[in-house]
Design a protein that fits this description.
The complex is a heterodimer of chains A (439) and B (457).
Chain A (H helix, E strand, L loop, with lengths): L8 H6 L15 E5 L5 E6 L5 E8 L13 H8 L9 H10 L3 E6 L4 E8 L2 H16 L5 H18 L3 H14 L10 H5 L3 H11 L5 E7 L3 H12 L21 E6 L4 E11 L6 H13 L5 H8 L7 E5 L6 E10 L3 H18 L3 H13 L8 H14 L5 H11 L2 H11 L6 E6 L4
Parallel strand pairs in A: 2-6, 7-11
Antiparallel strand pairs in A: 1-2, 3-5, 3-6, 4-5, 8-10, 8-11, 9-10
Helix pairs in contact in A: 2-8, 3-4, 4-9, 10-13, 10-16, 11-12
Chain B lengths: L1 H16 L10 E4 L5 E6 L5 E8 L13 H8 L11 H8 L3 E6 L4 E8 L3 H13 L5 H20 L2 H13 L13 H5 L3 H11 L5 E7 L3 H12 L22 E8 L4 E8 L10 H13 L5 H9 L3 E8 L7 E9 L5 H18 L3 H17 L4 H13 L6 H10 L3 H11 L5 E9 L16
Helix pairs in contact in B: 2-8, 4-9, 10-16, 11-12, 12-16, 13-15
Classes of the chains: A alpha+beta (439), B alpha+beta (457).
């Protein structure tokens, strides 16, 4: 409550990062193999605490959903847990809870990810993993749960459609991505169109072993990790073939859209499609964004918009790298009466940064933080798991982790300016203002 | 630089990936002559540390008309001291590779930094400096108070459920300062002056009202020596008298309605409940913790199973109870009715679930399930040094000791089914209850609010 910063946005900006070294180089002892069914496995032993974390990620995010059925990805993800060949939804929940395990996860535009955290002791681990394996491999999508979850999803969407933060975000993605599936957000109409067979079909086509990545981190040895990975993937759907190719992401036409809303603040987003996970400009953009709007209190946007003028509690920028060009996004919320002044200030800060790049002192400070604070990115099992899972899912180069700090150190002022010029073109910049109405 | 960091990285990964058991011991405590208490928990899994300073001063220490000043002062703590100019605090932490933030609650205000362990002395130096040398200038205040008002707009004014929670506290407490929100009423923020923040600082920011918590790859003795060096020179001062402000007994159910732009209604019910005062002797807070777990501790827990999955009255339900607080406690039930169902139907459904507990008790199986989660959580929490430091700070600033953390969990594990039933019967009574309902308003008919009056300063 009452925390000084709404969100640690720089985490979002920088969350992706570095890559694990191969086992041969013995930096991070990551073991990599493929299960008999074709799933890729990334394993790191961590014996300090008697616990185990397992991520299973599928290439089954929003981008795989057919047009007109937005919501199918999220619905499938939810219903996978709603009943297996041998157990009811209630039994599944109980078997997880009875051993103190936690089953979480989320769906984004690229990934449908499940994460299990359990004690590593045999009984608890065994029951938790056996239940997890049933869920993933033998879901039955019961009719009652399907109807219920569809109704809940529609309720949730209708609620979201009243909230300025959701309205602005949906409009922003719609304008950035137009016909590309990254633009899709479920509406009551698209959800109501989904049938039971769609869910089953989406599961069969996308929750397939060949496009699954299992990340295991914790108190087990390599041999046991191997058996666990088999247990979780041997019965996954197979042979669905390569997914249909997705259209290229096109740059939008720059424009400013106003949407009326009765809230006291205007919610403002600016941005454009900008960067993939494997973009060669990743490090110049990462470091540059830290200076522009990613570095918490010390970023230019925070200094100019919040600290000097008191326009906003939260103002930030980030790159969200995805399989295809994910957004560069600047966001803030400010009382309606000063929305135009605040927006003008944001544009001035961005314009100056694009024109001149960072100052040498700013670059030095950014490197001090990103290099010096590197340890904070992996100082717990959970943080390390998330990093290794990203590496696995996006198949990042195996030297990335080793190289992270060195690559940050190498970034120059000129590289940042050039990278921003390539990726953030003012002509393509989309602005959405929810709050004050038509201008 | 590059090479040093490179080796550092490898050492870190080795540490996280292959720590020997027993890397972690019990927390150790040390008190300086000025009354400052320092609690250190060594955890050598990774070469990082978290440093926190907790002040036992939150919104419950405010007086009417000055609500929100604890939180405003928290913002001002980043605005410069006699020797560290405004913004410099954050720049130095960032340059040390650190992350930082702060938070204010009803019971306390806390500041933290997560850093590579080598940066710990700098953190202590900076925190000690702003414990006694803060400047609260009119210029800085006049800018920052606008930020706080934007924060209130963002988190409360335009958030219907936050307005419901705010209304519930204001209805449930007549006398106790828990009745006003941590962030403060907007009108109080509009009329706050820099002198209010400065006076708050002078009154409460003293070493004898603070606890320093350090968890991570440190040696307790070295941390105590550093604390002596940096915090030891600050003088103790007497604290103002804290009035008990005991809430008078509630005499009957209280109800309120909040109208705001939304699609679905939302229901929040709060019953006055006890909190932990004596870890060894109290019983009901432990029983209420278990009850919250039986009702909402997992997906198959009673509320979700019955009201979301089976009867489908609700699209979301929840139960909440926090056994640690300086002030009075409350047990919550909340939920969103499904489309076409009313808040009244959901309330009836929630009450029926409570009646089931009171009439028939809870099963041994449910009890075991809640306890299994307690056991597991004791292990899982070791993965986060930040979480461990939070837990220590919360216990210490709500009148308990860090030594009570494991005792509390042991006592929860000893709760019986009959104790759960008895606690439900005793506390979930209408005379203790406040109910607030969100009455959703269509967006297009909701009138835009008039502009707030202009600030005078």
């Amino acid at each position: 409550m009452g925390s000084r910063r709404g969100k640690l946005v720089f985490l979002v900006a920088a969350a992706a990062l570095w890559m694990a070294a191969s086992a041969a180089r013995a930096a991070l002892p990551i073991h990599i193999w493929t299960t008999s069914s074709g799933a890729r496995v990334y394993f790191v032993a961590s014996r300090g605490i008697p616990m185990l974390d397992i991520n299973v990620d599928f290439d089954a995010g929003g981008r795989r959903v057919p047009a007109g059925k937005a919501g199918l990805g999220g619905l499938t993800y939810t219903l996978v847990r709603a009943g297996s060949a041998t157990r009811s939804e209630e039994e599944i929940s109980r078997r997880i809870a009875d051993v103190g395990a936690q089953l979480d996860g989320s769906v984004d535009r690229d990934r449908a990810g499940f994460s299990l955290r359990t004690l590593s002791s045999e009984r608890e681990r065994g029951q938790a993993i056996a239940t997890f394996a049933e869920i993933l491999q033998t879901p039955v999508f019961p009719e009652a749960a399907f109807a219920r979850e569809k109704a809940r999803l529609v309720d949730g969407i209708r609620e979201e459609e009243t909230k300025p933060e959701a309205i602005v975000s949906k409009a922003f993605y719609r304008l950035l991505y137009a016909a590309h599936p990254y633009a899709l957000a479920p509406t009551p109409e698209t959800v109501l169109r989904i049938e039971g067979a769609d869910v089953e079909g989406f599961y069969r086509a996308n929750y397939v072993a060949e496009r699954a990545v299992v990340t295991i981190l914790g108190d087990v040895d390599r041999e046991l990790a191997g058996r666990i990975a088999e247990q979780l993937t041997a019965g996954l759907p197979r042979g669905a073939g390569a997914p249909a190719p997705l259209p290229a992401v096109l740059q939008p036409r720059g424009e400013t859209v106003h949407i009326a809303h009765p809230a006291s603040q205007s919610h403002i987003l600016l941005g454009l499609p900008a960067m993939t996970r494997k973009d060669p400009d990743y490090f110049p953009l990462l470091v540059g964004n830290y200076i522009l709007g990613g570095g918490g209190f010390v970023s230019r946007l925070t200094l100019e918009v919040r600290e000097k003028r008191g326009y906003a509690y939260s103002v930030y920028s980030y790159f969200l790298p995805l399989a295809q060009e994910g957004p560069f996004q600047i966001g803030l919320q400010t009382k309606k009466e000063q929305a135009e002044e605040a927006l003008a200030r944001v544009r001035a800060v961005l314009g100056e940064f694009l024109a001149q790049g960072p100052r040498a002192a700013e670059l030095k400070a950014a490197k001090q933080n990103l290099v010096g604070g590197f340890a904070l990115r992996i100082d717990s099992n959970r943080k390390l798991l998330e990093q290794v899972a990203l590496i696995g899912f996006y198949q990042l180069p195996l030297t990335w982790l080793d190289d992270f700090t060195a690559r940050v150190e190498k970034v120059s002022v000129d590289q940042i300016r050039a990278a921003f010029a390539r990726h953030v073109r003012p002509d393509n910049l989309v602005t959405v203002v929810v709050g004050s109405g038509e201008k | 630089m590059g090479i040093r960091m490179f080796r550092h990285l490898f050492a870190l990964i080795a540490a996280v990936a292959a720590t020997a058991a027993g890397a972690q011991g019990a927390a150790q405590e040390y008190q300086l002559a000025n009354g400052l208490r320092v609690i250190v928990k060594e955890d050598h899994r990774a070469p990082t540390a978290v440093h926190m300073v907790w002040y036992r001063a939150g919104s419950m220490d405010e007086v009417s008309g000055a609500s929100g000043v604890a939180h405003v002062l928290e913002h001002m703590m980043f605005k410069g001291t006699k020797t560290v100019k405004s913004g410099e605090f954050s720049r130095r932490i960032a340059a040390a590779g650190g992350r930082e933030n702060a938070f204010t609650n009803r019971d306390y205000t806390a500041y933290f930094q997560q850093v590579p362990k080598d940066a710990l002395p700098l953190m202590m130096q900076l925190e000690a400096d702003r414990m006694s040398n803060l400047l609260v200038t009119e210029t800085e205040f006049s800018r920052e108070i606008k930020v706080v008002m934007e924060e209130r707009r963002l988190r409360t004014e335009d958030q219907p459920r936050a307005l419901v929670a705010e209304a519930l506290n204001a209805e449930a407490y007549f006398a106790h300062p828990y009745r006003w929100p941590v962030i403060g009423w907007m009108n109080d923020l509009e009329h706050m002056r820099h002198a209010d923040a400065r006076n708050w600082y002078a009154r409460w920011y003293v070493p004898n009202n603070a606890v320093v918590v350090v968890v991570g790859d440190v040696k307790a003795d070295e941390v105590f020596a550093l604390a002596q060096k940096y915090y030891g020179r600050i003088k103790a001062r007497p604290l103002p008298e804290r009035k008990p402000q005991i809430e008078p007994e509630q005499r009957g159910v209280r109800r309120a309605v909040v109208k705001a732009p939304a699609e679905l209604p939302y229901l929040l019910m709060g019953w006055k409940c006890p909190v932990l005062r004596n870890v060894g002797q109290d019983l009901q807070p432990y029983a209420l913790e278990v009850l919250a777990g039986v009702l909402d501790g997992n997906e198959s827990a009673r509320l979700n199973q019955s009201l979301v999955r089976n009867s489908r009255i609700a699209s979301e339900v929840g139960a909440g109870y926090d056994a640690t607080a300086r002030g009075p406690g409350m047990c919550f039930l909340e939920g969103t009715p499904s489309q076409g169902r009313s808040a009244a139907e959901l309330e009836a459904g929630l009450r029926a679930e409570l009646a089931r507990v009171v009439d028939n008790g809870v099963t041994e199986e449910e009890l075991a399930r809640v306890k299994a989660q307690v056991v597991a959580s004791q292990v899982f929490k070791r993965d986060s040094i930040f979480g461990q430091a939070m837990e220590i700070g919360q216990f210490e600033t709500t009148g308990l000791s860090h030594r009570d953390i494991d005792r509390v969990l042991e006592r929860i594990k000893a709760v019986t089914a009959e104790q759960v039933r008895a606690a439900a019967k005793q506390y979930f009574a209408d005379d203790n209850l406040t109910v607030v309902v969100l009455d959703p308003q269509p967006l297009d008919q909701a009138k835009a609010r008039p502009a707030p009056p202009r600030m005078r300063h």
